[in-house]
Each structure stands twice: as structure tokens, then as C-alpha cells.
Amino acid sequence: MSAPDQAPAGLSLRPMEVADLPRVARMEAELFGAEAWSRQTLSAELHAAARGDRRYIVVEPGEDGQEDGQQDGRGSRDGRDGFPLLGYAGLYHGDGLGDADLLTLATAPAARRQGLGRLMLAELVESARRAGCRAVLLEVRHSNTAARSLYLSQGFEPIGLRRRYYRAPVEDAVVMRLGLRASTGPVGAEAT
Asked: Where are the residues of the annotated region Disordered (predicted)?
């Protein structure tokens, strides 16, 4: 991808909306099981994003993507405008004076290894940069080698371990950090 917010042909990367919550909550439960955020938590986070201190995005087929309503195995069917949800992600950047936190990044299993995680991550890292943050931090399961590889490939470095951070099953989290250079664009200039 040449720039954040420029999804490949046939895909749409856009801000998460209230209408997306049923699809996001369903995918969250399927992917994260007992550790999934509840629909109420997802709703509260999305509403908190209106304050401007965090950002949530979704990826779905765009106007030239598959629109026939058939299950294509790429995501959660019966979504907004009949499109399947391919992924979603969220970032807290606060007032931009410190570090941003990647809160969640999820891709439908059948849509993995197509660059969607990288696309969403690049978009949120750029949001943090434009907000003035000095770094992006995240926690990832020690056993989640695919996610750790993605983060490493994008410049994140492991900086520590949070023992027994995850509950179901109990597992350590690897804490990773990406230092950011100053943005050349104004705060809030990222595409919505």
C-alpha cells in the first residue's frame, strides 16, 4: 500500500459507525471468545471516539467488491449494505502528548494474509503520528506469532512482557512499541 487510507481496489477502509456494531460484535466474539469485548463495551468505545481521542475503522468490500450478498468466506455476512466485514481496528491516541495504544486489530480468518491487517495498522499509526504521539504501544499474546510477525515487519519492537495478562487461556502478553517521527500534516488531517 502506498499510503494509509488507500485501500486496494475493491476494498473500503472507513471509520466505524454505529451500524457496524452488530457485525463487529459478532466477529469480536468469534475471534476472541471469552476475552471478547461486549457489544456494550464496543458501543461505549465507539461513542467515546466522538471526543476525538481515539479512532475505530473497518475494512469491507468496496463498491467494486463483491456485492451479490452471497457468502464468500471472506468475512461476516449480512452487514451494512450487505457487505461482509473483513476487519476492524481501534487506537487510543489521547491528546497526542504521549503514547498511543493500539486497542484492537482483527481480521476475518478467511481474509487473512491479504494485507488487511497491515492496511489497518498503517492507517492507525498515521492517525497517531498526526495527533502528535511519540510512539504506538500494543500488547499481543505471546503465542500469536502471526500478529507478532506483522508488528515486527512494520517496525514495532518488543519492549517487555506482561505476565498472565490474558485470562482465557492464561497467557503472557508481549508489549511492543513503534517510535514515531513527527507528522508533516496537521492534527486531524487524516481521512475520515
From this structure: 59-79
Mean pLDDT score across all residues of the chain: 84
Q: Answer whether residue 113 shows pLDDT above 70.
A: yes
Which three three-digit cell numbers place residue 46? 465507539
Longest dimension (CA), the chain: 46
Catalytic residue among 56, 88, 92, 151: 151
Q: Give the architecture (CATH level 2) of 11-64+75-133.
A: 3-Layer(aba) Sandwich (3.40)
CA-CA-CA-CA torsion for 102, 107, 109, 111, nearest 10 degrees?
-140
Tens of pLDDT, residue by residue over 155-173, are: 999 999 999 999 989 999 9
**pTM, whole model, 2 decimals?**
0.81
Residue 99 CB neighbour total at 10 angstroms? 17
Active site residue 151: yes
Beta strands in 42-169 (DSSP E): 54-61, 87-92, 99-107, 135-141, 157-167
